[in-house]
Batch of 3 targets.
Target 1
Amino acid sequence: MSAQPVSPSRLSLNQITTKNWSLPEAVQGCLDAGIPAIGLWRDKVAETGVAEAAKLVREAGLAVSTLCRGGFLTAPDPDGRHAALAENLRALDEAAELGTDTLVLVVGGLPDGSRDLVGARERVAELLAELAPHAGDLGVRLAIEPLHPMFCADRAVVSTLGQALDLAERFPVEQVGVVVDSYHVWWDPELASQIARAGARIASYQVCDWTLPLPADALLGRGHVGDGHIDFRTMTEQVTAAGYTGWIEVEIFNDTIWNTPGADTLRTMIERHHAHVEAP
Amino acid sequence: MSAQPVSPSRLSLNQITTKNWSLPEAVQGCLDAGIPAIGLWRDKVAETGVAEAAKLVREAGLAVSTLCRGGFLTAPDPDGRHAALAENLRALDEAAELGTDTLVLVVGGLPDGSRDLVGARERVAELLAELAPHAGDLGVRLAIEPLHPMFCADRAVVSTLGQALDLAERFPVEQVGVVVDSYHVWWDPELASQIARAGARIASYQVCDWTLPLPADALLGRGHVGDGHIDFRTMTEQVTAAGYTGWIEVEIFNDTIWNTPGADTLRTMIERHHAHVEAP
């Protein structure tokens, strides 16, 4: 079975965008819509089993743009650090088995009760140093994702593309890269210069829009491309000018979209991709 | 009538923290609590009248740390720009009459329907250039407040201290400064270096804490110093090392705190100030 003829040649469905679909449903949805790639989530993969999931996407002819996600590297105690390392090594192995070259990392927030942001950031660097060689051996890149500063306390102490690059550049380019996710970085006054600086470090370009008001759960406020305040044409030009030619992954956390039939969501994704990101 | 003996010698009550108090009530609250300064809001001042408000705080012996707020400078059309200029000139005059040397500016978000962040930022610079000489003549500084990036679309296209300094440094130091507000800047990986750079540009140091979860209205999520994730001791040391010796203003937007009796709020402010910001 091979993929349908595809029009949006660089578009990838990040699986969280169709959260209510199982992995087999998401794979079929991509085939039906002509979307050539998928970004997988570890929890969904686990439901199917890693080997079976790998077989499923391979036989469908889909590329795996990323695996989401590793990270959470800020534990201060030896047990916490050891557990984080073990978990990330498993995630790297899964990424290799699934056939993707990119493991997205959400680095983790402040440990409970801590206000030591500088220390938390140092621990991220330390654990990256332990993981990077293993990633290189497997041919999988650790892709540091700066998260919007509103998630600094609880999810990611890496908040800007510049900061992610400061970390990534300590390692060989094939071992550690960065994610440019429109939602997290669009506001940054240094965005243009940091995307240019990123160059070959860009391991993934993820898109969704900044919409207002923020919902009660700030995690779930992302909108379809075109529904909010982000200038995708300009950002895509900048990412392209930096040399990135890889997948453009739509990753949306939004209850309303999650409750929309998946096929409708994919149709909207393709329309918006052509209207705002890449002309057909 | 003179102020009571004061222990927290640099503490100022930003009036929004006791939103349900009128100006006369807030002035009396500061006197009762021994707080020597107040940051005024234009809407509260207008209820009393500018001349009467000026007389009230002067006779109470209170310093006026700031006037909040001017700004909203991103309108793209001539009428909108003209109206913004006129409004800010009025605010500068009020600041001078009230006896403060600092007008806090929230620069404004993206105009309706616009995704042109670069253009909006340019318009802020253009209107600052028109306002700055008038501010200098009155002895009032325009204090650019970078707002947290989650307010970039709708309230302030200036999101970092570095960006605020890039703007401020185009003008004489006595005309344009910056606000360091802990809530807005605490996450910034460049915070230490940008505070050091700011030096004499620091026109105001405002404090409140980053608490989670964010409430339904993200504007209202601020907590008392000590209730959240911010390391105030370190930030205060950095601001002090940069040469700032002015007021430390507590500015909290929070429905629960607004519904607390003002005297209780001021007591908590003083306790937290001594515990986390400045030893008594």
Note: Chain A has one domain: 11-277.
Target 2
Amino acid sequence: MTHTLVPSDLIEGAPVCALTGEKLGAIERLMLDKSTGTVAYAVLRCGGFLGVGEHHYPVPWPKLKYNQMRRAFDLDMTADQLRGGPSELDGEAFDWGDRSPPYRHPQYWTV
Amino acid sequence: MTHTLVPSDLIEGAPVCALTGEKLGAIERLMLDKSTGTVAYAVLRCGGFLGVGEHHYPVPWPKLKYNQMRRAFDLDMTADQLRGGPSELDGEAFDWGDRSPPYRHPQYWTV
């Protein structure tokens, strides 16, 4: 039986690939709007080694599609597009809740 | 700076109390609608001992309000109302994605 529902803890940690199949990273967590209960964006964790030097990218939920064959989310963005958007390197002061700054990819912050 | 966003992994594991302050359990996970990215409901884990004999209850997201003082979610339901609704005991075959059965608390399954 297939459903339209998915558990949050199954999404966290799921691998994310570009449409080419290249692995980009993994979903670290989802950021939810408290009042509406809607996913504002997913945080994608990329690179690093043993948890050091990782980059964290906000990715709009509609850009992520689960690919049953790969058992991973497909992200309709290239690695370059991802790097061109907002990100946080470990330890940086990045305000994850602040969606006011104008980014090159404004859709990052749209619910 | 206060925001309207909250990370999914901070919600998972958060304690849940009745309005009286009585601890009811903890949020186990969120069930999300894949297409809309909306929380369909939260799963509340109650009772049990060392992970055995726990009950799992679907709870509508709008019924949960974070209480800063208690550092817990307030649930506007009594323990009796919770037990009167749908639940799963460990190991039971409960179809978490199936929102078709008529329950005594139909709002459980409303997004």
Note: The interface with chain A takes residues 1-9, 11-12, 29-40, 43, 61-62, 66, 95-99 of chain B (CB under 8 Å).
Target 3
Amino acid sequence: MPAPLFPCDASFLSRLALLLPQDCLGPPGPRHLEEPRGRWIGQAGAVALPRTTEEVAIIVCAAAAAHVGVVPWGGGTGLVGGQVMASGAAPLLVSLERMTKTRAVYPEEGVLVVEAGMILADVQAAAAAVGKLFPLALASEGSCRIGGNLAANAGGVNVLRYGNARDLCLGIEAVLPDGTILHGLKRLRKDNAGYDLRHLLIGSEGTLGIITAASLRLFPPPARSVVALLAVHGPEGALALLSLAGDRFPGMISAFELIGRMGFDFLAKVMPDLRQPFAPPPDWSVLIDLGLPAGIEAEAAMAAFYDEAAQAGLVHDGVIATSDAQAAGLWRLREAIPSANRVIGAVSSHDISLPLGALPEFLRRADAAVAALGPFRVNCFGHLGDGNLHYNVFPPKGGRRADYEGCRDRLKTAVHDLVHAMDGSVAAEHGVGRVKVADLELYGDPAKLAAMRAIKAALDPLGIMNPGAVLRTG
Amino acid sequence: MPAPLFPCDASFLSRLALLLPQDCLGPPGPRHLEEPRGRWIGQAGAVALPRTTEEVAIIVCAAAAAHVGVVPWGGGTGLVGGQVMASGAAPLLVSLERMTKTRAVYPEEGVLVVEAGMILADVQAAAAAVGKLFPLALASEGSCRIGGNLAANAGGVNVLRYGNARDLCLGIEAVLPDGTILHGLKRLRKDNAGYDLRHLLIGSEGTLGIITAASLRLFPPPARSVVALLAVHGPEGALALLSLAGDRFPGMISAFELIGRMGFDFLAKVMPDLRQPFAPPPDWSVLIDLGLPAGIEAEAAMAAFYDEAAQAGLVHDGVIATSDAQAAGLWRLREAIPSANRVIGAVSSHDISLPLGALPEFLRRADAAVAALGPFRVNCFGHLGDGNLHYNVFPPKGGRRADYEGCRDRLKTAVHDLVHAMDGSVAAEHGVGRVKVADLELYGDPAKLAAMRAIKAALDPLGIMNPGAVLRTG
């Protein structure tokens, strides 16, 4: 058990300031302490704004010497409090927001090397500028940073085809908890030279080091895309449709998103100007985005697929976008759902994944379990192709979230117990952060937890890196 | 530094025998101690043949209690001595050869759960039996076992499209060095519940635990395949062809293999009955295997690709298989090269990877460096799409390997120094084993090595798991 940490106080800061250029340290702004859902307010003795990996190393070295906690900070978009330390000795935030450079680009190799502070949308743009695709795409792409995406192993809408953030990364550079720099920016497709520290740091949410740069995989963009919104017969129908689509378009399904009726109802209430294709909305629908190679006529292929699915009784209505604008309009519906949810105000949100085959039964049982706790509304949507649902529970119509705060723990327990019982994960794409530490202890495999703690103690014996995230301190 | 280990002697074995069914322990056979290239002979006090994960746990627990080394043994096909402990206190071999069951199959989810001792070809067959593809494919697939493939993060011929072994694995069950069982057989596409121990154990070559079972990803098999052997203008031409193929057939190139002229010359000498399509063979050629979806006429697509490549000056000759038998014949040429190499007898073999763009310059410089050491012949072939070459050096024509043994270290140093200087890896797909421990120390990032040692000490404080593999003991 490491000794308690000291706060990031004036004495520490004055010593650290001597080691850094003049404008590297400052007071944290509100944006450094808030988080998207407004649940917790962080605290910090200061925010460090390094410009180079060497400066990050100096900062971590000094923090280690002084036993001061370090909270790595990317875009501040995390949804599980991984970037928000609300209690304990005030840490030093280390924001990578000044480290936004492209280090190198190799279009012929499909490799882009960037610093960790680059905004995800800028990474996408840098890939597009050389005619390539960087497929990581998620709601906060305009403000999240690639280092945070990797630290959290972000998911998003294109995982089905291209994988999670870890699958898009060939190598990382990072500052380890003792301040040494891990030089791992290789751009190799095969490298079995020792333990894969890249994959260990990716998804460790800043508790084993600070990722400072990454070699990323780029892909040829599909020659043609086609998007459709299809009304399906329940979750079973959606899964059968996914299976059919996988056979007809192997490796070409860029996204396969489930939308429950409540999502459309919320959009109608919160964003009445957003044009909806169905009236009334179907109970369940699927947004499917195909990225096709040259040689396949995209709209015709989607139309033929719709006909086949309709004949098989898998879909009962649908619209196929016939222009980029229409495709963007269908995507806007899907992407607006989290915003609408925030306006309505969830009592409890769940980022869960399940084995694909278990999804229909899970939804039946989860709906029943929630209904047993009160007249709640459920908005369930998400990345069906990945078995990853956002199963969010809202107050009854006309009810206010504040009146149901007391139900949150019971709701969460009911949903998470069921996910665990059905071999799922209660931390699918958002990570553990600080909000799911107890869930990990409750549901995690004991051997895995013991190994995680041993690794944390081995690499960060002082416990300075993102204290209290993923694993409990003290 | 852990204390020295004790040998697996009669006293230990008699105590262990009390904990296991009667026929679980025996003397190792020659196959347990030999390795494919005949370079080293292993030693072992006994071989354990558990039937269940629980028995593996009992064995590891007992070994930990007695400070006896454990060498996990799969198919014995490793090429870097990872399964061969030639010196030190005699270890206990733990062979998974009796653990060959399918635990579960979920065709609709594309998931197969198997025990670690299943032969790779049987895994492929189990996938095919439900209409799916398990794409890991390599020369030893008839005898290697999936647990060993995962422990070594095997590569093979389909990495370009489907990834390395680690990319094909959703979850693992393993026995950790203290004998606890890691229950991680989830079949989820997104699971960010804590550190990714799966990726840490995969590629750790049995030094952090014994993989006992795995959830594997299955894919829809391509509707049509087409194979061609194309003569290219040097490695630059091969890379340009790869780039063009990637644009024309994104995500559909199952394999892209480089073959140097020496490969065909060796085949002509060693296997004169094998029909070769070119006379004389081209200096450089590429075997390309496209797996295409329904809707693309495979042979016509390859023919059009050939015409485009020829007009661009990238290829100057070629054959396109027009039947499965012809496709198999082309593949047989590629797959027979390692066998021919063994008959000729390499002085030094190198499993290396480089950034794709660096390959042509590497080959120029490596050939010059080898020529400076003597009149050697180089047979260079491999997985160009992954930047992974087998760069093997042979005695001059008429020379015998035995006369050049003294040159091996200098050859190896010349090639590996160059690989390292050009940002490559000297352990691309075969791993580190015991033969490349010193290379890892020499070329590895110091921060990475220190972290690896810390992780090893944390998870295996007694140093019993595959002692001396990957990391030096004592």
Note: Chain A touches chain B through 95 residues (CB under 8 Å).
